[in-house]
What does this fold into?
Amino acid sequence: MKAIVNATIVMRDYLIPNGTILIEGEKIKKYGKSKDVALPENCEIIDAEGLYVGPGLIDIHTHAADNKWIFEEPKATSEYMLQHGVTGVLPALYNNLNKENYLKAADDILNAYENGDFKNFVGFYMEGPYLSPNFGCERDKNVWKDAVIREEYIDIVKKVKNSAKVWCFAPEREGIEQFVQDVKEEIPNIVFAVAHSEATPQQVEKYIPYGLKIATHHTNATGTIEHYSECRGVCVDEAVNYNKEIYAELISDRMGIHVVPYMQRLVRRIKGDDRVILISDQFVCDGPVPAGFEEATDIHFDNAGEIAGSGLTLDIACGNFMVHTGCSVVDAFRFGSYNPARALNLARVGYIEEGNFANLIIVDDKFNVKKTIFKGE
Ligand SMILES: [Zn+2]
It folds into this structure.
């Protein structure tokens, strides 16, 4: 048995100061105020020194870590993310991969998981292939701009049918409804996400009954809002803000470039504390840094000068979101662990409870990760 003592335990919407968490094997055995949790003999003690102890982070959308592609280096990236408190990862596979490379990337990641080299793998985040060709980085590598054809996508769907958790698409693509139906038939529990899209609100809402409930990097890579010259129109963003059930992913970089800090606060206010999910969306890209962005060292750019994801890990994003919105450590854990687990129906993770996996992280008041415990280790 292990015990984390001297912990400020982070619950979903409150704190337990002077707390103890007992761990048996890979599960949480008991938690509470120290005076109420007796320490068994020969118990290994971890002193949290009064810092916050909360549920491990779950990054539902990232392509890379430590500037390496997850599909190329699953072991190294997995370990790097664990050091950063990320105990659950959904590697994102993007439309810069052709069919052959989608299948290979999925195989390589699944093999790493089965070999024990990717312990914190949760499932795939399929960012594509059918997004709007007008958005996103590395547009020149997108081979999925033409018609949506079953023969081209069905092998990818079948390859990841036991492991995909989220599937992104642009609702305005011609022929997309058949694709959505086929994915749903193969993967009944799939969560759909609207991504890289110029859809109207009506086109987005059409897919809510199919299980669309995530907005991929909300406010990034979404349509035009032109209407009349002096009147604002509406786009995907408004549909996401309007429909309460949709979770909004946010990339919170240090300077607020993906989403300006005022917008981060606005989205938090509109979507509420239950519908914000922080993601890192780290990408590998070393295009030249455009003038004026020299200090944005946690952002990547492609060769066309387009923003190409971040260089963040989720712990850093949580700390940034606290700065940009003034949210508390408790809130940051909700946006980085509880909400992602709820959005994807992941059981026994995302919050502290007896019988849940002992995926726990110790952080300071700026969300610097001091220690990660994954399944009790
Ligand atoms: Zn994207």
